Amino acid sequence: MQELGQLLLVITFLVTLATAFTGAFGAVTKRPTWMRGARHGLFAVALLSVAMAIVLTYGFLTHDFGSKYIAQYSEKAMPFVYKLAAFWGGERGALLFWVTSLAIFSNIAVHSRQKDRAPDYMAWVTALLALAILFFLILMVFQSSPFDTWMTQAAPEDGQGLNPLLQNPVMAFHPPSLLTGYILFTIPFAFGMAALITNRLDDAWIADGRRWTIVSWCFLTIGLLLGARWAYMEIGWGFWWMWDAVENAGLVPWFTATAFLHSVMIQERRGMLKRWNVVLLGLTFLLTIVGTWMTRSQIIVSIHAFADSELSDYFLVYMIAIAIFAGVMIIRRWKALRSEAHIESFMSREAMFVLNNVILVFCAVITLYGTLMGKITESDGVRNVLGLDEPIVWDEEKFNQVFVPIGLALLVIMAIGPLISWRKATAKNFRKNFLWPISWGSAVTLAGAVLVIVLESLANGRVHQVGFGEGYRIWADGLDMGDWLSIVVYWMCAIVLFSVAREFHIAAKVKRAQAGGSYFGNIIVVLFKNPRRYGGYFIHIGVVFLFFAFTGKAFKHEEKDRHMVVGDTHIVDRYAVTMVDRDQRYSVEDGCVIADATFVVMPVRSTPSEGSVARVEAWLAERNAGPAHVKTDWDEPLIEVRLKDPAARKTLYGDFFLARRFGPRFERIDDGSRTLSETWLPRDRKLVDAMPMYAMEQLRAARDGFIVADLGAEATLAAGSPQLTLRFKDAAAQARFHERLKSATVPDWVLTMIDDPETGALAVVDRKTGQRLVPESRFYPSKRTSTTEVAISGEDFLVDVYL
Predict the structure, then answer these.
(1) Which of 31, 199, 349, 596 is most buried as measured by Cβ atoms within 10 A of its Cβ?
(2) How many Å apart are CA 63 and CA 188, to the nearest integer?
(3) How much is the average pLDDT of 28-47?
(4) DSSP for residue 661
(5) What is the pLDDT of residues 100-131, one digit of tens each?
(6) Helices 519-529 and 481-515 sit at what angle, rounded to 10 degrees?
(7) Region 629-650: what's the mean pLDDT?
(8) Cα separation, 373 vs 362, whole angstroms
(9) Dihedral sign (CA 132, 133, 136, 142)
(10) What pTM does this model have?
């Protein structure tokens, strides 16, 4: 099958080359047959690309490790979804994904517009899209084919598998979303350049390009958000965005694409910013290639860059070619791109759009600068030229220092921009449009502030055992400039939300006055009747929620690297974190060894509920455990049980040990003959093979459990062997042990039980107490790689507890 894929690759390359030539020749000579042939050729390219994608996908699903690419990024034990995700998990597959997606979407773009657009214009669009596809085919044909096979050695029996960090549900969608965002901006670029070549500079190309820019922007946005979510869940950063270089590579063109989407509105409405728009168009497409080059050039360091890529020089040449071509086309039509109108007043919607554009482009430049300068200024020569003593390295703190004021400026513009009139805003218009959002935004912010003060003061009173007034003083003393700035941001967010609500409210009232119907029904009608305007307002709402989240980081309380053992409690901010259990196992599904720790998180100054205590007391009474003292302590989920009869304590713990610790984890391996000595092994043999130290930890825990529970057997370990040997005093003791092993039960509500040999007390943890979080450490034997899986609470809408 890989030979078939290689053959299809060469054929696709030749057909794409012919399509590009046919389209350009047909456009120059105005020959309809050639122009029509170019469209058919583009369709053939799409069919061939899909065929290549099917061949590679089939190879992944059938474990065709004769392919170097499949052997590198797949393995038999990988779950089905990750075998599919492995398609784009490496550079070669990502190139094929790029070609296939671009070919499919190019056909949709060309065939949906060829009937109502000039033939030569569409022929140039076809030729330019074919040339873009051709570049990536050149990379695959001459440098990085996904169909390469083992020529001088036998294929491996199993593959290396996908990087464990990428084996996350979010990562099945993050790369293709981000790549699709990059890919699709080729289409508006092709429409724009075709308009410049043919001198058809009316708004037709804007309409064509804007539609595909929106699609590209949506995919790019989804990809960035999914990447942020992946980093939050997988990397353990403790936040969504740490200005990772690869994510920045996707953010840079997002800024300029956002600017383009705003400025084309002015061109369509007022005939302004034509030059600015074609510059933004070329710049955004160039930046998508720059972002692709950054991840393959070793110029940036990231956990998910293509560190072994050999394509940097190819992309560098492609970037130079794009810059020269777009620059020449823009200069050639510079006079024809003069604006039909000018900004009449700074206090106008046009001026706000321009200011918004300037800030967005500045954000792109700053992000690119901060991402690349660390690597560029590593060179002694560069530092000497710039007069630097050390490289310029931007970390998260530096990025945040720069972008906080920029973000606030964008939020201000987003609040006032839609409310200002076109051409020139009057004082009367200003008061009319702004009074309602500012009044309601201020009222809601004030109400929210009062609510926060009350809740914080009550919480401080509960934690410190003081009154409301003293609790308020503690809260007020802790305020700093960041808190006041956060209030300002929330106030501005409220104004934006109410300004959007005002726009929908007025539109719904007008529509109801004209056609009747319900108020909310007319809101839906307005949205679908003018999706460009009101859909944009929904995007603004989404941005407001991002600002809510970014501002919330100011209140994060972080404490790292706390050593804990089972039974320990640690106070972090207003939460008590108690480690109640540990476990180790081999996951066949994930192909890794998992070591986890179970934590129970409770608010400070809280205890297990009375219902939990009642369950423990009822369980003790049911077992006839005799006189017992049950108590709880502040900040701990542990329900302490002290039994007057030591034998009852051993019996209670023994049943828990047999039902939860020994029975599920160990199995007898001798022939079962009636001897007083038995050999037991861990059931999880793969754990023994992959991580003997974890298996020995379970064996030692089992040996200690026999000592604590006094089960009538002496448990011993053999040096260097994963065996537990049980020796019984007599046959009766052995029979009692096996009978008890079969009958031992523990209620489902018991999460765990901890024995304290120093005090002679047992601690029971109810599953319903607090929030249960289980972070993991994972080891992948086939890759000799370790990763972590963070645990994040989801019970509180406003707060995440992150371990």
Answers:
(1) 349
(2) 39
(3) 93
(4) I
(5) 999 999 999 999 887 788 899 999 999 999 99
(6) 100
(7) 91
(8) 16
(9) negative
(10) 0.86
